[in-house]
Design brief:
This protein has 38 helices and 26 strands. It has 1032 residues and is of the alpha/beta class. The protein folds into five domains: 246 residues, P-loop containing nucleotide triphosphate hydrolases (Rossmann fold); 236 residues, Rossmann fold, CATH 3.40.50.300; 84 residues, no CATH class; 230 residues, no CATH class; 103 residues, abc type-2 transporter like fold. It is found in: Membrane.
Length: 1032
């Protein structure tokens, strides 16, 4: 019988010139728990994504659960049995959706039927303690709760392989412990489930049965965790990992820390009293107070989002405090001043130097910024030598390992010899050896150069190296003291346990003081697996009421266990549909359970994670029960599976038309909810077209009227004034103040004071009285040729009318009527108002541009935040995903059209003379075409900003120039006409103008409908071809 869950053979992967994976071969047995360790950038995420099937296999073979992951159909079938939780806090969550909606979306995505979906969701939220927060948006959950919700989403389809990529990075120790207890408890329901976990905390991997250690894309170790510890003769996995590394990456030995002795005669380096920072209604930092002596290494510990970085920015003068005071070296900190910045070195959490510059150039730039002058060159050379950067001085930071990049940042921060050094998680993602080397530099700066160091971290072993530390949680400081003092105060065995006890006390105070809105503050104890410190400060019993998360889950699902979908990776007797029973007889006591590790019974327990090792078990039905409830079949590989009837109904669900349409609806439903709750996108989608129509319909006009003209009357007679009155009395012209001299003519035209100037010469009245033909000069602004031509025609017409009037007044026997007269009669738009042509054209422009932009952003947004990994890991096809994303924006486009049509009729007075049904059909087609174009754009851009610009350029230029909106398509020739006929804008313009101006009906648009529909279908097919189901 095949027992291999994952098998990799000679797998390699490259990103350009970077070798992410180098000839990796390994096997993982079914039912094992595997820890994957290594610093950032060694290939962990790439390896997991290949196993999950969300990344294209470049070289080698990847087999998962007996299937070849290079085969598209195999990946689709196996997606039901694989759960992938990508890297990043809540990366697979949708922030605006509630807890229930997030899990429900994932359940629908995998084809779970309504009853099964509800039962599974109820069980998961009960087991995780999320049931009190079922309607809360995911974005409002704490970090630990987000990770629990992510796990629920991953487990909702009951997978056989669970892949977790650094699920606890940046989460506080209490939440980390709760998370691992939860994983262990839920694993008891499916004892054959294989779990692969990449972790940034090496000590976490010590709990798993098998260890995979990586460095520079290579596999350093692939054996049981206990064997690794025995082979390298250590009890700490981090020490073993350092010994695995190449010799040049290993540390120089034990890090000796000289005790810190403060100088009582020196003022404090940093002093904060009641420091508070609010962002609107959110309090990021709440009444923080501490004093740091000069030369001390002060550690700041807390989870992501607890306020560490905000506090540091206030202390460096980058942020202004809302309340409280802070002093640096005895002087108040001025958020807008430069004095503080010149005395402080600040190293941000993310790499903040310039990737385009070399190491030396970055340091040279910092020397100039800090005004080192003639000393700058010597300071740069000294920094290169001191931080061992000589050999990479001319190398760009982008090509350096993370540890060296961090040393470069530290060198830049220390270049101007600051008195205080503030470091925001400087070693995050760095391998243990590089961290030790980094800390050697910090100790030297503190002890030899007497620099005060304020450093934030979430590594407990780093915190123990600090002279004093401060625990921070949700913006508040929980405790300040030396690591020994804080550990002793909580009667804890180590610093992490002390931090956990501080967190529990803080949560308890919050619960007793007021009803908090934060999920992590009021989660049920049964889901925590942790005790109340008030009653047992030194005990780490899994629960306060004797019931673990596993027991709670068993109790909740006892009545419906028969109908849950069994696992497919172990014998039926272990996953029978029978009831789960739990009794005192089969539940080990804490004393018994705490000595065994449920992941590896032979492994030594890790003190700081006893809760994870002390999970109580759920008894499973007997073999006879299983046989009665669920007959088994034997697969070709020897594994027992479900009966054909049970297995087939899941298969039919994912292959039927009903499932196909349901999946499309699932994506559309989720996208609609997100759009409605995203106020910025919603306002742009609904009101953007309205604003554009108002602005463009008023701003674009071909009506030549209300033209300003000025007169330079040299004659000043009644005859000359009579000629001027012909122009000032016309509705086309508006007279401006008269000009005083000839030079004013040029000035009036250049300043746009007038678009036409009349220059009447001396003797004009005399010559008219004599019957002569005096000349009058008309100066016309020709900057706009179209307007200039019309002005010329108007002027000639008015002068002609003046001449005829004079001839008739003299009674001359001249027949002024021409022998033939052409009288134009406009079939459409008889008033010759350009608004009747421009406004429908603007509707065409808006309905092509805005839906395309929204559809493009809708897809690219998921790429940016990482939630598109849910699609990659699901059985959904590209067409289902894209059509589901497209439908809500088609609906928005129809809403836009309704608003724009009402504006045309009731605001701009453009009547709808033709068929409403005809223009509605055309609108549905054009919005479908424009959103499909947006989907195509989304396939080759990576950011929302790029999507907006690309969509705007690609839609506006062809629409304005080749649709007949500004320039008649009939006046073009060759490629211009062909391009205009290919784009749907010209066809839809025929529909809008025809319906609003010409009175055409539905039957008149057959050609237009066909052309737009063909374009929409072509764009959608192209989008499906361009968007890949796997990342490269």
């Amino acid at each position: 019988m095949t027992t291999t869950a994952v098998s990799l053979s000679a797998v390699s992967h490259r990103y350009g010139k970077v070798q992410a994976l180098d000839n990796i071969s390994l096997e993982i047995e079914r039912g094992q728990t595997v820890g994957l360790i290594g610093p950032d950038g060694v290939g962990k995420s790439t390896l997991l994504s290949l196993i999950a099937g969300v990344r294209v296999i470049q070289d080698g073979n990847v087999s998962v659960l007996g299937g070849d992951m290079a085969d598209k159909e195999t990946r689709r079938e196996l997606s039901h049995r694989i759960a992938y939780m990508p890297q990043g806090l809540g990366q697979n969550l949708y922030r605006t959706l509630s807890v229930y909606e997030n899990i429900d979306f994932h359940a629908r995505l995998f084809g779970l039927k309504a009853q099964e979906r509800e039962e599974r969701i109820a069980r998961l939220v009960a087991a995780t303690g999320l049931d009190p927060f079922i309607d809360r948006a995911a974005g409002k959950l704490s970090g630990g709760m987000k990770q629990k919700l992510s796990l629920c989403c991953a487990l909702v389809h009951n997978p056989d392989l669970l892949i977790l990529d650094e699920p606890t990075t940046g989460v506080d120790p209490l939440s980390r412990r709760q998370f691992w207890t939860l994983v262990n408890d839920l694993r008891q329901e499916n004892q054959g489930m294989t779990v692969i976990v990449a972790t940034a905390y090496v000590e976490e991997a010590q709990q798993f049965e098998q260890l995979l250690a990586m460095d520079d894309g290579k596999l350093l170790s692939n054996q049981s965790t206990q064997s690794v510890l025995e082979e390298y003769g250590t009890e700490e996995l981090e020490e073993a990992y350092i010994k695995m590394l190449p010799e040049e990456k290993q540390t120089e030995g034990i890090l000796n820390i000289t005790p810190f002795t403060p100088d009582p005669d020196l003022p404090p380096a940093i002093e904060a009293h009641g420091l508070t920072k609010r962002f609107g209604d959110f309090t990021a930092v709440d009444q923080v107070s501490f004093t740091i002596p000069q030369g001390e290494i002060f550690g700041f510990l807390g989870s992501n989002g607890c306020g560490k970085s905000t506090t540091m920015k206030m202390l460096t003068g980058l942020l202004e405090a809302t309340e409280g005071t802070a002093e640096l070296l005895g002087k108040p900190i001025d958020a807008g001043g430069t004095d503080v910045k010149m005395r402080v070195g600040y190293m941000s959490q993310a790499f903040s130097l310039y990737e385009e510059l070399s190491v030396r150039q970055n340091l040279d730039l910092h020397a100039k910024l800090y005004q080192l002058g003639d000393k700058g060159k010597a300071a740069v050379e000294d920094a290169l030598h001191q931080f061992q950067l000589d050999e990479v001085a001319d190398t760009a930071p982008s090509s350096l390992p993370l540890g060296i990049r961090q040393r470069l940042q530290l060198a830049a921060a220390c270049l101007h010899h600051p008195e205080v050094l503030i470091l925001d998680e400087p070693t995050s993602g760095v391998d243990p050896a590089a961290r030790d080397m980094f800390w050697r530099h910090l100790l030297k700066l503190s002890r030899e150069d007497k620099i005060t160091i304020f450093v934030s971290t979430h590594f407990m072993n780093e915190a123990e190296r600090c002279d004093r530390i401060s625990f921070m949680h949700k913006g508040r400081v929980l405790g300040v003291g030396t690591p020994e003092e804080l550990t002793r105060e909580q009667n804890a065995p180590d610093l992490e346990e002390a931090f956990v006890q501080y967190l529990i006390e803080a949560e308890g105070e919050t619960e007793s003081g007021e009803k908090t809105s934060d999920p992590s503050q009021s989660a049920p104890a049964a889901s925590d697996g942790l005790p109340s410190t008030a009653s047992q400060p030194t005990s780490y019993n899994p629960t306060a009421n004797g019931e673990t998360a596993a027991q709670l889950a068993a109790r909740v699902i006892q009545a419906d266990r028969q109908q849950d979908r069994p696992s497919e990776n172990h014998d039926t007797e272990s996953v029978s549909g029978g009831l789960v029973s739990h009794s005192a007889q089969n539940t080990p006591s804490h004393a018994e359970s705490s000595t065994e590790n449920t992941f590896n019974p032979n492994q030594q327990s890790v003190p700081q994670n006893d809760d994870f090792a002390s999970t109580e078990h759920i008894s499973m039905p007997s073999e006879n029960q299983a046989t009665d409830k669920q007959p088994v079949n034997t697969r070709s590989d020897g594994l027992n599976t479900l009966t054909p009837s049970e297995n087939a109904h899941h298969k039919r669900d994912t292959e039927s038309l009903k499932y196909w349409l349901a999946t499309v609806f699932t994506f559309a439903r989720r996208e609609t909810k997100e759009l409605i709750r995203d106020k910025i996108r919603l306002v742009f989608a609904v009101f953007g077209p309205v604003i554009m129509l108002a602005a463009m319909a008023w701003g674009v006009s071909f009506d030549v009227q209300n033209l300003r003209f000025a007169v330079y009357d040299r004659d000043q007679t009644s005859k000359s004034r009579e000629l001027v009155e012909y122009f000032s009395g016309s509705r086309y012209f508006i007279e401006q103040p008269p000009l005083q001299n000839e030079a004013d003519i040029q000035t009036a035209l250049q300043s746009s004071q007038a678009v036409m100037v009349m220059d009447i010469p001396h003797g004009f009245g005399r010559d008219v009285a004599r019957g002569l033909s005096p000349e009058v000069a008309f100066y016309i602004d020709g900057a706009m040729p179209f307007n200039a031509s019309n002005i010329q025609g108007y002027a000639a017409s008015l002068v002609g009318a003046y001449s005829r009037a004079k001839i008739e007044a003299q009674g001359l026997p001249i027949n002024l009527n021409p022998s033939a007269v052409v009288e134009p009669r406009m079939l459409y738009n008889q008033d010759f108002n350009s608004i009747n042509a421009i406004a429908p054209g603007v509707v065409m422009l808006v309905l092509i541009m805005v839906p395309a932009m929204m559809a493009a952003v809708g897809v690219v947004r998921e790429k940016e935040i990482g939630s598109i990994a849910n699609f990659y890991a699901s059985p959904a096809s590209v067409s289902q995903y894209l059509i589901g994303k497209q439908l809500p924006y088609i609906g928005v486009g129809l809403i836009n059209f309704a608003a724009l049509a009402l504006m045309l009729v009731f605001w701009f007075g453009v009547p709808l003379k033709g068929s409403l049904l005809g223009v509605l059909i055309g609108t549905v087609l054009i919005v479908t075409a424009s959103t499909a174009m947006g989907l195509v754009i989304s396939s080759f851009v990576r950011s929302q900003l790029a999507a907006i610009f690309a969509a705007a350029i690609i839609t506006i230029i062809p629409t304005v120039n080749y649709s007949g909106f500004l320039y008649s398509l009939s006046a073009m020739s060759g490629a211009s006409v062909m391009f205009g006929k290919i784009m749907p804008a010209s066809w839809y313009r025929n529909i809008t103008v025809g319906s609003f101006t010409k009175g055409l009906n539905t039957a008149d648009y057959t050609t237009e409908y066909s052309a737009i529909a063909a374009f929409a279908a072509a764009m959608l097919i192209l989008a499906c071809m361009l968007l890949k189901k796997q990342e490269k």
